[in-house]
Amino acid sequence: MSKLNMEKSRVLVPPIKCQGIKTKIVPFIKEKVKINENGTWIEPFVGTGVVAFNIAPKRAKLIDKNRYVIAFYQGIQNGTITSNIVRDFLEFHGRELEKYGAEYYKKMREEFNTNGEPLYFLFLNRSDFNGMIRFNRQGNFNVPFCQKPNRFTKAYITKICNQVSNVADIMKGKDWIFECCSWQKAFENASEIDYIYLDPPYIGRDTSYVGEWPEEEAILLAEYAHKTPANVCLSMWKENEFRKNNHLFEFWSDFTWHEQNHFYHIGAKESNRHPMIEVLAIKR
Ligand SMILES: C[S@@+](CC[C@H](N)C(=O)[O-])C[C@H]1O[C@@H](n2cnc3c(N)ncnc32)[C@H](O)[C@@H]1O
């Protein structure tokens, strides 16, 4: 096996999926990001958690506006969500999905939009179109079904349960806080020994994760990143064959840029399926 493939196979894959998930560039991030073991790893846009799980710091503040992702990981952390609980849930609802197909998926989605239960969120996330996360203006999850009634095979459920156990193991004994709040809160009390990893929604691409990501917000984030005494690493696309990210050139050019090609598999838009140059812009 090549060195790169070995690195890739060592990546811990989380149970949640989302568009823009950084699984493929985790080895690159691990190579470039040097943390201080006494500091706190801070992620205001933690998403699936793949970066934090692989950096595996002692102390972390993991934030996202998506309260369902946060509730899911809090559940794993406090033991109310275990791989056995996940197995029972997915086996039961997977059988119903096989019987009733798309209608059952819709029923689960409707129930989730009322009960907000993290296990329903997992079910939907792992049986929806391309593992996407998207909410409408009323805050309702609205991703369509993947159209595979036999989605939850035995092997697939085992894979998800292993991902849940792996995540539970990595959190054990660590001082990690998962919180659903605005990204600004992540910067509060950050000090020189802390490390802030930023993976905000992308301007100019599909940003319907939870809400909008307007350019003013992106500019404010750049201001916070420059002012904080903490070290900062920003993940952002630089360009592909169709377009260039002017925001990166305008607001982040004083950081050191490390570049890599990244191929997005998840994403509904055709233009998101092409190779993209990804930048890690690091403060110091
Ligand atoms: C590009 S994704 C992060 C992906 C993550 N690094 C991963 O690999 O899974 C951006 C995340 O920002 C979150 N988000 C969007 N707007 C936000 C806001 N205003 N405050 C905090 N989080 C926000 C979304 O819910 C989404 O999880």
How would you briefly describe this protein structure?
This protein is an alpha/beta fold and 284 residues long. Helices cover 38% and strands 15% of the residues. Strand 1, helix 3 (50-55) and strand 2 form a beta-alpha-beta unit.
Topology:
Elements: H1 3-9, H2 26-32, E1 41-43, H3 50-55, E2 59-64, H4 67-78, H5 83-100, H6 102-115, H7 118-125, H8 154-171, E3 175-180, E4 195-198, H9 215-227, E5 231-239, H10 246-251, E6 256-263, E7 275-282
Parallel strand pairs: 1-2, 1-4, 2-3, 4-5
Antiparallel strand pairs: 5-7, 6-7
Helix pairs in contact: 4-7, 5-6, 5-8, 6-7
Q: Could you walk me through the main structural features you see in this protein, from its secondary elements to its overall organization?
A:
The chain is of the alpha/beta class and 284 residues long. It folds into two domains: 165 residues, Vaccinia Virus protein VP39 (Rossmann fold, 3-Layer(aba) Sandwich); 87 residues, Adenine-specific Methyltransferase, domain 2 (Orthogonal Bundle), CATH 1.10.1020. The longest helix is centred in the first third of the chain and has 18 residues. The radius of gyration is 19 Å and the shape is globular. The model has no long low-confidence stretch (mean pLDDT 92). S-adenosylmethionine binds next to helix 3.
Please tag this protein with its features.
284 residues, alpha/beta, Rossmann fold, Adenine-specific Methyltransferase, domain 2, 2 domains, seven-stranded mixed beta sheet, 10 helices, 38% helix, 15% strand, binds S-adenosylmethionine
